[in-house]
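Dear Dr. H.,

I hope your travels went smoothly. While you were away I took the liberty of generating a structure for the chain from your last submission, since the lab meeting agenda had it listed for discussion. I wanted you to have the full record in hand beforehand rather than looking at slides cold. The sequence, exactly as received, is reproduced here:
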Amino acid sequence: MARLRDAGHALRFVTNNSTRPRAQLTEELNGIGFDLTEDELQTPARAAARELEGKRVFALVMSGVVPDLEGLELVGEGAEAVLVGGCDETVEPNQVFRYMNLARAFAEIQLGAELYCLHKNRWWQTSRGPLLDAGAFVAGLEYATGLEAVVLGKPSPAYFAAALDALGAEPERTWLVGDDPESDIRGAQLFGMHTALVRTGKFRPDTLDGIDLVPDVVLSSVADLPAWLEKQ
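The corresponding predicted structure, in token form, is as follows:
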């Protein structure tokens, strides 16, 4: 990251993390060696706060992101919108996504509430290996209600647009670097951005098998990006 900054590149850290507030994520990233400010980190919870400002929201989210939902009226019934967040490694997802909560979300949608999700990831990488993420619960509500959820995080075009607006950048002059072929690479390509897939995080040896997209480059690590860009 330091080499990219020194070379004059503007950076934006765009995550689908929906379990911890932006301030805590920034602190954690700085603690492991990144040098960034809170304003440089873009999270789907903050996107939800902007998109749903002033609405009554039934939120199936981890308690950690509630501080980033400022401006929303969180309710248990009579909602205008249902918002589904992501999962973490604690027991809390068992409480958030229990049957009665999902049934309440279904009922609110039947009564006219719109369906939103912070992201629709199928799984995520943890210290214990891959774990089921919130996409399965979003898909279940879509199946039951016949509605398609509005995705607020990656790969939503609006989410990428917000990142580019913050950078003052054009898509064709911007690189998206990520480990997820669907949320990162496909979404960025459809938005007109260049893409670099890294062999870390969610990447698996068979990741590129059978997918109908080709990133501009596949790198072993984001640490290889500065040198690769200098050669282009």
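Two observations you may find useful: The chain has two domains: 2-16+157-231, 45-151. The two ends are 18 Å apart (CA to CA).

With kind regards,
E. W.
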